Amino acid sequence: MRISLGVCLSAISLTASASPPHGLELRGIQLGNTCEEALKAELALGAHPRFPVATMRAQHVIMMSDTQVAGEPKEMLYHCTDPAGIISSYSIIIEAPEEAHRASLYQEAKAAVVARLGAPTLDSEKLSPAQKARVAGLQGAPSAVCLWRIAGEEDVSVRLQPPIGAHDPWQVTTSVSEPNLYRSK
User: Fold this and answer.
1) Which is it for the CA torsion 88, 42, 148, 72, positive or negative?
2) pLDDT, tens digit, for every residue of 152-171?
3) What burial letters (b/e) apply to 30-56, b meaning 16+ CB within 10 Å?
4) Is the distance from CB of 22 to CB of 86 less than 8 angstroms?
5) Which long-range contacts (CB under 8 A, 24 or more apart) does 19-23 make?
6) pLDDT tens, residue by residue, 4-15
7) CA–CA distance, 54 with 157 (Å, rounded to integer)
8) What is the mean pLDDT of the chain?
9) In the predicted model, what is the mean pLDDT of residues 103-112?
10) Least confident of 1-10, 19-28, 41-50
C-alpha cells in the first residue's frame, strides 16, 4: 500500500479538542484515547509502525501496518492532537484487489458499523438512479459509501474507493472523526 506521511498529513485537519474516550471502538481504540494507547494496542495486535515512531509522534500521527491476514493488508492512521496526543480521528484502510472480495469487505465493514450504530444517515446504495449517476461522474468519488453522523459525538464513514492511479488497489476505508472535524465552517 503506497501511503506517504506527507500526503496523509496534508489531508488531516489539525483542530480538535480533548475528551474522554467515546463512540465507535475499532481495534480496541476510540476517539478520546491517546495515540500512545493506539500505538500499544496496535503493537499488541501484531501491527507494525509505517515510519519511525519518533517521526510520527512529532507529526501527531500514528500509522500502522497489519499484514497478518493474507490478501487483506491493513493500514491504520490515527490523528493526534497536540500537546495532549488525544485521538481526534482515525481510519482503517484495507486493500481489496479482487472484485468479489472488495464487495464482501465493504459489506462486512458496513454491517459491523450498522450493528453498533444502526442505519446510516446516508447510504449510496439507496440513492436514486439519477443521484447515483451524478456521484459516478465525480472524479475520485467512492463507488459505495455509508455515513453516520452521531450528533455531538462523531462522524463515521465506510467507503469503497476505486484506485486513484493505474497501479493503486481498491480500498475499503472505515473512518471515525470528531463531529465537524472535516466539514467546512
Assistant:
1) positive
2) 788 999 999 988 887 888 89
3) bbbbbbebbbebbeeeebeebbeeeeb
4) no
5) 19/86, 19/178, 22/153, 22/154, 23/150, 23/153, 23/154, 23/156, 23/176
6) 333 333 333 333
7) 29
8) 82
9) 92
10) 1-10
Gyration radius from the chain CA atoms = 16
Phi first, then psi: give them for residue 43, nearest 5 degrees.
-60, -40
Could you give the CA distance from residue 17 to residue 15 in angstroms, rounded to a whole number? Answer: 7
Parse the chain into domains and list their residue ranges. Answer: 5-177
Give the separation between CA 175 and CA 117, rounded to whole angstroms.
14
Q: How far apart are CA 150 and CA 31, in angstroms?
A: 13
Please state, as a whole number, how many other Cβ atoms lie within 10 Å of the Cβ of residue 77.
24
Q: How far is CA 67 from CA 64, 118, 152, 173, in A?
A: 10, 30, 34, 16
Query: Rounded to an integer, what distance in angstroms lies between the CA atom of residue 100 and that of residue 96?
Result: 9
SS3 (DSSP) at 169: coil
- Phi, psi values for residue 105, rounded to 5°: -60, -45
Q: How confident is the model at residue 181 (pLDDT cuts 50, 70, 90)?
A: low
d(CA 153, CA 179): 6
Strand residues in 11-153 grouped as ranges (E) = 22-26, 29-31, 48-49, 61-66, 74-80, 87-95, 122-123, 144-150
